[in-house]
Design goal:
It is a single chain. This protein folds into three domains: 94 residues, Fumarase C, Chain B, domain 1 (Orthogonal Bundle), CATH 1.10.275; 282 residues, Fumarase C, Chain A, domain 2, CATH 1.20.200.10; 68 residues, Ribonucleotide Reductase Protein R1, domain 1 (Orthogonal Bundle), CATH 1.10.40. The protein starts with 10 loop residues before the first helix and ends with a helix. The protein is mainly alpha-helical. It contains 19 helices and six strands. The strands form three sheets. A two-stranded antiparallel ribbon has the order 1-2. It has a two-stranded parallel sheet with strand order 3-4. Strands 5-6 form a two-stranded antiparallel ribbon.
Length: 495
């Protein structure tokens, strides 16, 4: 038996949808809504759609709403959302004749998507700023460790000697691209949908570019259908944060290993260590665990954005309006927390330099150079040299010999037994081939592990960081200039 219908809103719809989304809108859309309303009123007047008196009344009413404060805008049953709450208040202040004209040539559709884009700008720029700060911290850390030898790993096993700076330069390369992805996401987002109205635009002679300019948008979304249907401004944010999360998670995994007693490579600052409630000796680097967990949270939030935009109609839909707010803004808020916390960890990170230098040769990590030396100085083909050095390592391991125990004579004996060859390699050449410092210093090609080559990479990355910082400064200046321009327009109309 069908139940009788009830009046709008159903109590559960109100509890789970309208009330929480009203609060979300107050948190993220209130300031953007006031700005968008001011810009729209100015544009309507400048285009001759409303009178100066009407525009002035609307702008003064908006000023009063602003002065009364956001606390006065509370959810009331039957008033769907913040838009209607503000509109009702404007009509009450300016009167129905003037107050009701603000929605001329506009819909909640184009306004809503504009508010999302406006509200995304500050946290996007905040994340971009914090990522630049982290890159600057890592750059300073790398420059301090150009000469710090350490084992480089492949397949989680010691592979070849490298330096801490060479490792961090690799991390910085990925983070540099992460900054580029955030810049791209900002550019995609900073386009104005205003003027699309519900879907098809409007017959009123509006100026879409004026509205965009007053609000600091770089340009308009030319297609009015795209204006109310696009979601890539959100999925571009999600994509940038997903890749950033993956890059940082891999660094975090290495740091957690390096912080173990078994590795002993780094020292997490005391400010980030927590003790055990039962084991007096414990100094737990839990900050890295919190970072790992928050990176996972950010990845889940960013992945949720993409999933929520997936398989929905191309057009206006709640999936990418109110419903996406917690994921969209939550992901950026989590990103900011991660980046700031990571920067503090890097700024206070200690390195056990002597221990890493000893570990740089352990595990026969330099023998690639020994094989190369046999090619260059003994005339062996590389595959033969590789086979011989592999046999030498197996012999040393069987005899319990460390790399420092090996000599050119042992190499000759192994070569004679394995292949019947008389291999001539001087004692000096043999010792140089197994020296981790010489191994690293020889790799002077662009991007190589030699301190000079790594320093060149860091210098190049510093230039890009400078460019990213200049972009951020100019972007913030452009937004401030647009805000001042809108303020000037409002003041001229309300004098």
């Amino acid at each position: 038996m069908a139940r009788e219908s009830t009046s709008f809103p159903h109590p559960l719809y109100e509890e789970y949808v309208l009330k929480p989304f009203f609060e979300d809108a107050k948190s993220y859309y209130y300031r953007p809504m006031l700005a968008a309303n001011r810009a729209h009123a100015v544009m309507l007047y400048r285009c001759g759609i409303i009178t100066r008196a009407n525009a002035a009344a609307l702008l003064k009413a908006l000023a009063q709403v602003d002065a009364e404060g956001i606390e006065q805008l509370t959810y009331r049953s039957g008033v769907e959302d913040l838009f209607f709450a503000v509109e009702n208040r404007l009509i009450a202040i300016a009167g129905a004749e003037y107050g009701g004209n603000l929605q001329l040539a506009r819909s909640r559709n184009d306004l809503g998507y504009a508010l999302t884009r406006l509200a995304l700008r500050p946290p996007l720029l905040e994340a971009a700023d914090d990522l630049i700060n982290l890159r600057e911290s890592l750059l300073a850390f790398a420059r301090a460790h150009l000469e710090t030898l350490m084992p480089g790993y492949t397949h989680t096993q010691p592979a070849q000697p490298t330096t801490m700076a060479h490792y961090i330069a690799g991390i910085l390369a990925g983070l540099q691209r992460d900054s580029a992805r955030l810049r791209f996401a900002y550019a995609t987002n900073n386009q104005s949908p205003l003027g699309a109205a519900a879907l098809t635009g409007t017959a009123f002679p509006i100026d879409r570019k004026l509205s965009a300019r007053l609000l600091g948008f770089d340009e308009i979304q030319l297609s009015t259908y795209d204006s109310i249907g696009a979601s890539d401004n959100m999925t571009d944010v999600a994509g940038a944060l997903c890749t950033l999360g993956v890059n940082l998670s891999r660094l975090t995994k290495d740091l957690l290993f390096w912080a173990t007693q078994e590795s002993g490579a780094i020292r997490i600052d005391e400010a980030f260590l927590q003790i055990s409630s039962i084991m007096p000796q414990k100094r737990n680097p839990v900050v890295l665990e919190h970072l790992r967990a928050r990176i996972s949270r950010m990845l889940a939030q960013a992945g949720g954005i993409t999933l929520q935009c997936h398989n929905i109609p191309f057009g206006d839909t709640q999936d990418i309006e109110d419903e996406i707010i917690p994921l969209l803004f939550g992901s950026l808020e989590t990103a900011v927390e991660i980046l700031r916390l990571y920067g503090a960890v890097v700024d206070t990170l200690g390195v056990n330099v002597d221990h890493l230098r000893r570990r740089a040769i352990a595990g026969f990590t330099t023998v690639t150079e020994l094989a190369d030396s046999l090619v260059r100085e003994a005339g062996l083909p590389f595959r033969g040299a590789h086979h011989l050095v592999s046999a030498l390592v197996r012999h040393a391991q069987a005899q319990g010999l460390a790399p420092a125990d090996l000599t050119a004579d042992i190499l000759r004996d192994v070569a004679s037994k394995v292949s019947g060859l008389n291999v001539e390699l001087s004692d000096d050449a043999f010792a140089r081939a197994l020296d981790p410092r010489a191994f690293v210093n020889a790799r002077v090609l662009p991007g190589g592990a030699a301190p000079s080559a790594t320093a060149a990479v860091l210098d190049a990355q510093a230039l890009v960081i400078g460019d990213d910082r200049a972009w951020l400064d100019s972007t913030q200046a452009a937004l401030a200039a647009a805000e001042q321009s809108l303020t000037d327009e409002v003041e001229r109309l309300t004098r």
